[in-house]
Each structure stands twice: as structure tokens, then as C-alpha cells.
């Protein structure tokens, strides 16, 4: 209950902060129409929506910026292009700021409700384990967690609707107060070069008989298939940090993954520890003869290792539109195309896998080891005492994992029209959030060799079987991002876990893992 007392106020604080943000992010109300500004703009700027239809027939409206009735640009939240057009129109900028504020609040509710819901579910698992695997405790926290996610999804829509209102009002304010069309030239067309130029540049937006000039095409979309990445990869992990009270270490790893049609994935990786953060000489080194040192070490010690195979299958796939930051530019012209609108996928996944760990456990503060073997006695019949406080033991674990994951998948490849253009041409990424339950059907301590004090130089040893209790249930909540834009990509991941292991308090089994990997990727046909 102590953990519950600490966690609940923290979650309430999160909720309160969102409430305060929601109050401060109130909508900017439309301003009454007033007289034109002193320095009007002569560029017509409109908000238009284009209909996008997915492969399954779902339709979405994507906002675009249209200038002078011809050039269309995808709208982004912080579009410098839009702000430059509105720079001389304070009322429009005020509404644009309101749009940005409400979109930020929308995003905070999205991330906050999912994070708080996941934290509640993990808290329920920890408390349930402390209460003897109490199903009612876990079910109540899990239900509250899902309820938090659903409530956040409902509340965030309020800010999305208000953001849309602010955006439309920004365009309205600009066109009413700050836009003045160029005066129409009544000179006969054949006698006026200015009229000819205006016609060629399509600057006369009031003449509806003229066809608008098409925006120059700087790129061609070659691929936009986030529902089927067709990726495989081999990854080298130069650093893995595992912070765990009985075995904190730093190591390296090697792995591979493969994406099946529909983005079902399987991933396998092997890790080997190289450096141990406790720096304890009693880890696997016997005491020198002629000393009073007395402790036990594994009879056949090896370096820590970990092998994991994990698969995921999407059960909900939602395809929608997003803006890819391509920043197509030409020297001397600056950025010509900041973003390109394309498909993205948000998927809910079922996860299942297997983990094998071989780990030496130790603790400077004392590892609670027990054995059922009677004490040895001296030739005089007096029992020899054992001190396990500075001992170490190897734990062999076979763990099954299963849970839910949320994935955000992006995939876009373009071809630039000529060599003078620069920009991001290949953008592919996978972001995963996951919550897994861990269960170890098979866990076993290795035998240890215990060394008794040897002040006279004669070292007395004893082989012991460890009978300390084990806790087979655990959980983990994590995040992993894979940047797969080039043949050589990268991945970064962080997870918090409660490991199956020694039968100690839950707090002592909590740990954090972080890793960074370099990925060599390819695509299947």
C-alpha cells in the first residue's frame, strides 16, 4: 500500500496539470471586423481541404494553404510559410497562436492519457504481485487505466475542434482586414505590358476566366506504404545499459528483424554483458588463501547473457494523413517545399515472445541466499558458520512475455526532379509503446562454491545448492524508436521492468534498460 500511496498523488498531479493547461489554453475568440491595416498584403491566402481516400474506402479531409488561387501547400502546425503571409496581420496571428496552443493541448492529452493509463495498469500489476497475485487489485487498476485512456481520447477532441475554429478564423481575419487585391488594369490587353505580365503570373485573382497557374512539381512520390514496410534488418547494439539492483551491467548485442505483409513483425536479439557496475570482487573470484574472507561464488560462472524473440501482430490498423518534413530546397532559393502530405499508420498490436536469461546476482548490501544443507563441523565438532551477505549466485531463467503495443509507422520515398534540389528523400520510422506481462515457468539457481576463512593457508570449500524463494511474475513498460530512412538506420529504446527473480520485495526487482543500435536494413520484394 505504500507504493499505492506514492503513486496515486503523482497521477492526480498529472491530471491536475492537464486541467490547468486546459484552462489556460482557452480558445481565442473571433475579433470583430475592423478597418484594413496600414500595410496590406496583395497575396490571396485561402484554407482549402482536399479529400483523401484510403485503401479501405475511408475518407479524410486534409488542410492546404492556397496562394493566389493556384499554389497549394500542406498545412503544418508551425508553418513558417503561413506565418510569413500573416506577419502584417496581428488579428490573424492571434488566431494562429490559438490554433497552435489548442493543438499542443490536444497532443498533451493524447500522450498524457496513454502514459497515465499505462502507469496505472503497471501499478496494478505490481500491487497485485505484492498481495499474492490478487486478481481484483489488478483488474481494478487495469480498468482504471483503460478508462483514463478513453477519457483522454474524448477530452482531447474538444481542443481539436477549437483548434480548427481558430485556424479558419485566422484565414477569415487575414482576408477581411489585411488582404487588398491589386487594382484591375482596364487598359486594352494588346497595349499594356503590365496586363500581359499580370495574366502570365496569374496575379489577377478576380478574373475567373483565367486558368490558375500550376505549382511547379519538384518531386515524384515513389513509395508511401506504411501499412506494409517490407523491411528486414540486422542490428548491432554497441551499448546496452541494464540497471538492476542485483546485477547492473553494460554490454553489447546483435539482432535481426523481419516484417511480414501487413506489418506483422518478428525480432530476435542476443546481448552479452561486458562491464558490471557494482565492481564487486566477490562476483566470481574466489578469496585468496590465507585470508579471513568467506563467501560463495557460482560453481561454473559465465558472463551475463540474454536472448529474446518477440513477435507482434496488428489487430487494429488505422491509416490517416500526416505531413512528412522533406525540406526540399535549392541553393539561392531557400526551402521550396517544407512538407509533403502522405499516409501514416497507427496500429494496436498483440505481442508474444520468449526470453532466456543467464545472470549472476550479487549485492553489496547482501543477497538473501539460503540452503538446506547442514553446516560443516570442525574436527572438534563445532559447526562452521556461513556468511552469504557478500556471496553471488547465477540465475537461469526462461520467461514468456505477452501484452499489447501501440505503433506509429511512417514510410515515404520521393525522387527529386533535378540535381540542383536537396532534401530528405527517404523517410521510414517505427515508434512502439508496449506493456507486457512476464512469467517464468522455469527458473533455477546454479550451485555455488562456498569458501571458508583460511588464515592458516589451508582453504576449505563446500558445494551448496541454493534454495532461496523465487518470484516468477513480472512486467515491463517500454518505448522503442527505429529510424529506417537509409540503408544504415538507428534504434533507441528504454523500458522499465519488474523482473521475475529472487523472492524479494517488488521495489528491489524494479529496473531500467536502455539500448542504442545501428541497423543495416533492406526491403523484400
Descriptive report:
Residues 186-209 have a biased composition (Basic and acidic residues). It comes from Chitinophaga silvatica. Residues 186-212 are annotated as: Disordered. Helix 1 packs antiparallel against helix 3. It is built from six helices and 20 strands. Strand 9 (305-330) and strand 10 form a beta hairpin. 30% of the residues are buried. The chain has helices at 2-24, 80-85, 90-130, 135-178, 193-201, 506-509; strands at residues 45-53, 59-67, 71-74, 219-223, 231-244, 249-259, 265-276, 295-298, 305-330, 334-362, 392-416, 421-422, 426-445, 448-451, 461-464, 470-471, 473-483, 488-498, 501-502, 510-523. It is 24% helix and 42% strand. It is α+β, with helices and mostly antiparallel strands. It has two domains: 39-178, no CATH class; 219-371 and 383-523. The strands form four sheets. A ten-stranded antiparallel β-barrel has the order 5-6-7-9-10-11-13-17-18-20. A three-stranded antiparallel β-sheet has the order 1-2-3, with helices on one face.
Spatial strand order of the main sheet: 5-6-7-9-10-11-13-17-18-20
* Integer count of domains: 2
Note the beta-strand portion: 35-45%
Distance between the termini: 54 Å
How much is the average pLDDT?
78
Count of β-strands: 20
Along the chain, the helix and strand elements come as HEEEHHHHEEEEEEEEEEEEEEEEHE
Which structural category do the helix and sheet elements fall into? Answer: alpha+beta
Number of helices: 6
How would you describe the shape?
elongated
Please give the largest β-sheet.
Answer: 10 strands, antiparallel, barrel
- What is the CA-based Rg, rounded? 32 Å
The portion of residues assigned to helices is 10-25%
**Unreliable runs, pLDDT <50, ≥5 residues?**
1-28, 30-35, 189-208
Organism: Chitinophaga silvatica
Protein name: Outer membrane protein beta-barrel domain-containing protein
Signal peptide: 1-22
Biased composition (Basic and acidic residues): 186-209
Amino acid at each position: 500500500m505504500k507504493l499505492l500511496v506514492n503513486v496515486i498523488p503523482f497521477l492526480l498531479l498529472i491530471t491536475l496539470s492537464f486541467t490547468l493547461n486546459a484552462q489556460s489554453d482557452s480558445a481565442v475568440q473571433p475579433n470583430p471586423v475592423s478597418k484594413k491595416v496600414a500595410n496590406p498584403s496583395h497575396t490571396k491566402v485561402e484554407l482549402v481541404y482536399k479529400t483523401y481516400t484510403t485503401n479501405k474506402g475511408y475518407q479524410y479531409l486534409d488542410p492546404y494553404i492556397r496562394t493566389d488561387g493556384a499554389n497549394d501547400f500542406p498545412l503544418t502546425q508551425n508553418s513558417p510559410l503561413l506565418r510569413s503571409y500573416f506577419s502584417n496581420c496581428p488579428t490573424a496571428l492571434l488566431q494562429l497562436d490559438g490554433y497552435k496552443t489548442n493543438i499542443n493541448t490536444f497532443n498533451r492529452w493524447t500522450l498524457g492519457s496513454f502514459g497515465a493509463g499505462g502507469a496505472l495498469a503497471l501499478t496494478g500489476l505490481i500491487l497485485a504481485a505484492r498481495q499474492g497475485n490478487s486478481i481484483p487489485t489488478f483488474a481494478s487498476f487495469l480498468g482504471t487505466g483503460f478508462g483514463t485512456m478513453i477519457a483522454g481520447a474524448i477530452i482531447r477532441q474538444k481542443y481539436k475542434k477549437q483548434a480548427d475554429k481558430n485556424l479558419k478564423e485566422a484565414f477569415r481575419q487575414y482576408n477581411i482586414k489585411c488582404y487588398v487585391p491589386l487594382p484591375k488594369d482596364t487598359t486594352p490587353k494588346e497595349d499594356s505590358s503590365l496586363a500581359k505580365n499580370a495574366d502570365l503570373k496569374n496575379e489577377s485573382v478576380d478574373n475567373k476566366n483565367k486558368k490558375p497557374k500550376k505549382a511547379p512539381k519538384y518531386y515524384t512520390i515513389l513509395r508511401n506504404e506504411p501499412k506494409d514496410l517490407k523491411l528486414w534488418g540486422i542490428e548491432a547494439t554497441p551499448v546496452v545499459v541494464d540497471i538492476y539492483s542485483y546485477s547492473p551491467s553494460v554490454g553489447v548485442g546483435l539482432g535481426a528483424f523481419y516484417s511480414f505483409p501487413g506489418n506483422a513483425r518478428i525480432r530476435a536479439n542476443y546481448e552479452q554483458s561486458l562491464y558490471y557496475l557494482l565492481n564487486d570482487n566477490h562476483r566470481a573470484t574466489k578469496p585468496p588463501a590465507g585470508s579471513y574472507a568467506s563467501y560463495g561464488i557460482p560453481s561454473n560462472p559465465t558472463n551475463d547473457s540474454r536472448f529474446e524473440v518477440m513477435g507482434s501482430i496488428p489487430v487494429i490498423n488505422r491509416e490517416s494523413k500526416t505531413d512528412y518534413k522533406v525540406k526540399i530546397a535549392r541553393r539561392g532559393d531557400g526551402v521550396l517545399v517544407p512538407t509533403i502530405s502522405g499516409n501514416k499508420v497507427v496500429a494496436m498490436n498483440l505481442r508474444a515472445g520468449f526470453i532466456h536469461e543467464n545472470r549472476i546476482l550479487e549485492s553489496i548490501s547482501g543477497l538473501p541466499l539460503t540452503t538446506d544443507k547442514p553446516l560443516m563441523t570442525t574436527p572438534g565438532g563445532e559447526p562452521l558458520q556461513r556468511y552469504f551477505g557478500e556471496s553471488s549466485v547465477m540465475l537461469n531463467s526462461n520467461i514468456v512475455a505477452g501484452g499489447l503495443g501501440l505503433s506509429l509507422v511512417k514510410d515515404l520515398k520521393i525522387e527529386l526532379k533535378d540535381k540542383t534540389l536537396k532534401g530528405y528523400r527517404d523517410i521510414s520510422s517505427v515508434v512502439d509503446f508496449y506493456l507486457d506481462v512476464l512469467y517464468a515457468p522455469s527458473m533455477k539457481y546454479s550451485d555455488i562454491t562456498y569458501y571458508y576463512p583460511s588464515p592458516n593457508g589451508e582453504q576449505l570449500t563446500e558445494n551448496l545448492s541454493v534454495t532461496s524463494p523465487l518470484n516468477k511474475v513480472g512486467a515491463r513498460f517500454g518505448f522503442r524508436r527505429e529510424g529506417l530512412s537509409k540503408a544504415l538506420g538507428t534504434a533507441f529504446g528504454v523500458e522499465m521492468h519488474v523482473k521475475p527473480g529472487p523472492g524479494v520485495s517488488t521495489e528491489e526487482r524494479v529496473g531500467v534498460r536502455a539500448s542504442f543500435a545501428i541497423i543495416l536494413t533492406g526491403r523484400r520484394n
